Amino acid sequence: MERESVLRQEIVEVGRRLWQKGFVAANDGNITCRLDEDFVLTTPTGVSKGFMTPDMIVKVDMDGNTSEGYLKPSSEIFVHLMIYKERPDVQAVLHAHPPFATAFAVAGISLEHPILPEAVLHLDGVPLSPYGTPGTPELVEAIRPYIRGRNAVLLENHGAFTVGDSPLHAYYRMETLEHFAKISLLARLLGRERVLSPQEVYRLLQSRDRALVNPLCEECGICLAERTDLPGLVERITKKVMEELSKDGIGGSNRG
Ligand code: 13P
């Protein structure tokens, strides 16, 4: 099957999963993926993303003009296009309102603290971008600085964006984000969250990097050449852990 048809079907499948998992309600959410350097496939605006068919997907250029399709493109297409311009490595972008992650965004709490191996490995910490009115340039600019070095971002009082190598990859990151948010909330209800130590985080990131085919940077032997700012990531996480440890009741070591 031709690449464009495969991608259209993958977007439809991701929409179905988003709706089935309750990550979107009614007409919420949008999914895009790069077709090539000049064009992007996007979900149409104002439809349930759980019941789309491949012909409903719209092809737009990098300025958001429709090149093919009988429906209007997503109202958030300019956020997606901004992300492709800021992140040449990204092939797909996903926006949804998963309830647990969105509850953190509504409470004004980011999800950057390392409590779960999978979240550390697949998300590298999730920052919270300031509120911007949906469908406006204000939202585009609110998200821009946060998506530069991250694969998932919470949007204050709104929802979340994830990116990936394909629509399914971006979807898996949304699942991981929602799972992380749910477990973090439950742990808070139980009274405390024990954050992973910087050494534990470091070991996790090393195991992830060993599993990747990309070579390690020759200079430091730690970060991945042209892929991850590993030292920067460890520094960010260490800072966050130190903040958590200095708070009463949260963090701290429970190990003898
Ligand atoms: P669209 O249907 O226009 O993509 O918008 C849905 C949405 O969630 C806006 O934030």
- Fraction in beta strands: 5-15%
End-to-end separation in angstroms reads: 58 Å
Overall radius of gyration: 19 Å
Report the CATH C-level class of the largest domain: Alpha Beta
Lateral arrangement of strands in the main beta sheet: 4-3-2-1-5-8-7-6
Give the count of helical stretches: 8
Assigned CATH architecture of the largest domain: 3-Layer(aba) Sandwich
CATH topology of the largest domain: L-fuculose-1-phosphate Aldolase
Structural class: alpha+beta
Report the principal-axis shape.
Answer: globular
The H-level CATH homologous superfamily of the largest domain, spelled out, is Class II aldolase/adducin N-terminal domain
What can you tell me about this protein's structure?
With 256 residues, the protein is α+β, with helices and mostly antiparallel strands. It folds into two domains: 2-190, Class II aldolase/adducin N-terminal domain (L-fuculose-1-phosphate Aldolase, 3-Layer(aba) Sandwich); 198-245, no CATH class. Helix content is 43%, strand content 13%. The chain is built from eight helices and eight strands. The chain has an eight-stranded mixed beta sheet, sandwiched between helices. A hairpin with a 4-residue loop joins strand 3 and strand 4. Helix 2 (77-86) packs parallel to helix 5, helix 3 (99-107) crosses helix 6 and helix 4 packs antiparallel against helix 6. The longest helix has 24 residues, at 167-190. The radius of gyration is 19 Å and the shape is globular. The termini are far apart. It binds 1,3-dihydroxyacetonephosphate.
